[in-house]
Structures are given as structure tokens and as C-alpha cells.
């Protein structure tokens, strides 16, 4: 499957990277997040339902990663062979 990001999710991802770079004074943790996201994208492309929980409220799947520190919410469009990441969040943020 192809993995795509909607605009809001991508912006939240970049904002998170910027936050951690500024907070830590280096880009090292941001690189760790980027690598974890890349790995997650590969996993979603192969097995989008593995380890996913479905939110009936949002009608989206969610996956926590990087030891539960971050979460993505996504939709699987089987007929189009696409996974669309709708939200990227820190697990410390108020839930959707």
C-alpha cells in the first residue's frame, strides 16, 4: 500500500520536529522521531492493521510508536490501496 499524509498531519509532524530541536538544542531527537516514522510508514504499507486499534469515535486506526510517546491516526482505503495519515500527535497532548 502507498502511505500518504494529509496536510495537517504533516504540519504537526514538522512542528514536533522543530519543537524538539529547539527544546534540546540539537536535532538528534528529531532524527530519532524521523527514523521511527519512516519505520512505521514501511510497516503500515505492508500490514496496516497490525498492532492498530480502531477508534469508533474518529473512524480511524491509531498506532503508538517510539515507546508510546507519539501516535498517528490513519485511514485505510483498501480499494485505492492507500493508507492516509490524518493526525500526528504526541501522546501527552489532549486526546482527539
Q: Please identify the top-level CATH class.
A: Alpha Beta
Any low-confidence stretches, pLDDT <50, length ≥5? none
Helices and strands, in order, run as EHHEEEE
Number of helices: 2
Give the domain tally.
1
Largest sheet descriptor:
5 strands, mixed
Q: What is the overall pLDDT average?
A: 95
- N/C terminus separation: 26 Å
- The CATH topology turns out to be YaeB-like fold
Q: How many beta-strand segments?
A: 5
Structural class: alpha+beta
Organism: Capnocytophaga leadbetteri
Protein name: ParE-like toxin of type II ParDE toxin-antitoxin system
Keywords: Toxin-antitoxin system
Pfam family, one: ParE_toxin
How would you describe the overall organization of this protein?
By secondary structure, the protein is of the alpha+beta class. It is 39% helix and 31% strand. It contains 2 helices and 5 strands, in the order βααββββ. It has helices at 7-24, 28-46; strands spanning 2-5, 53-55, 60-65, 70-77, 82-90. A hairpin with a 4-residue loop joins strand 3 (60-65) and strand 4. Helix 1 packs antiparallel against helix 2 (28-46). The two termini are 26 Å apart.
